[in-house]
# Entry
Amino acid sequence: MWLRYAVVSVGLLFLYNNLELLAELIVGILGLSRESHFGEALFFFIYEVPKVLLLLVGVVFVMGIVHTFVSPEKTRAMLSGRRSGVGNAMAAGLGVVTPFCSCSAVPLFIGFLQAGVPLGVTFSFLIAAPMVNEVALALLFGMFGWKIALTYMTMGLGIAVVAGMVIGKLGLENQLEEWVRQMLNSTVAASAKGSDISWPERFGEGLDHVRSIVGKVWLYIVVGVGVGAGIHGYVPENFMAELMGESAWWSVPVAVLLGVPMYSNAAGILPVVQALLGKGAALGTAMAFMMSVIALSAPEMIILRKVLKPRLIAVFAGVVAAGIVLVGYVFNLVF
# Structure
């Protein structure tokens, strides 16, 4: 078993390190030139799709093994009854290791409330899970390097913690829908499973994790890379520079507003962001756009409406949007 996993890992690593050569080879075999719009777009697509998928598979497999040591029941029990600040930081940190899109995080949001986790702490998880999860960080690291990935993680966690604390301090539990408020006094027994399982079983869980998560998001990746390839190959640089360029002070809030109606996860939107940067968009503006897409999507708001009253949704969106705008300006100043 160990030999099989080692051989597969070496093979995937070799493929990952030679993707650019492979993309060049395929474009050349098709008789295309990277000087043409279609040739450059096709190169971008062929190079980025396997790159993103390989990163995703590797990270999700490792986290699937990590999840065999910590059960959801233990997690909920750990967060229940925590003070403001400590609980927010723990919940936001949990979001890093849960690769959910915004809509997928909503059921866990409800489960945390049912387990007695404070409202503000629960919001910290809801914000961090789609925005600062392991998938987003792995892809940022692979595409832009560790400095940008680390800065993004720090500021994203800061938004999740501060926004959760603000919402918690406002005492908006009365803005939950009635059926949700009735759950706040209920408890969930912490029936954590034992961790006495073998390593082959842990590897099996890792593979199941890959099948479950990658199976759900691979299409987003292909579509996202396809959009990014189109932008990379065809969209005029001056147009994107005018919309998201550094010189326009209004570009960051406009990018946030443009991102809200859209819906994607980090894996789907990051290739688009990479293409926008290649066309002259400012890094902070592009990051603000990405954050709003994955943390403030319209589908998420529609689902949350069944749980939250409009006032609480407005507070949540406003606090998070303000944090994202701030992150955009900081990225534009620093990088």
Notes: Residues 199-234 form the longest helix (36 residues). The radius of gyration is 21 Å. DSSP finds 17 helices and no strands in the chain.
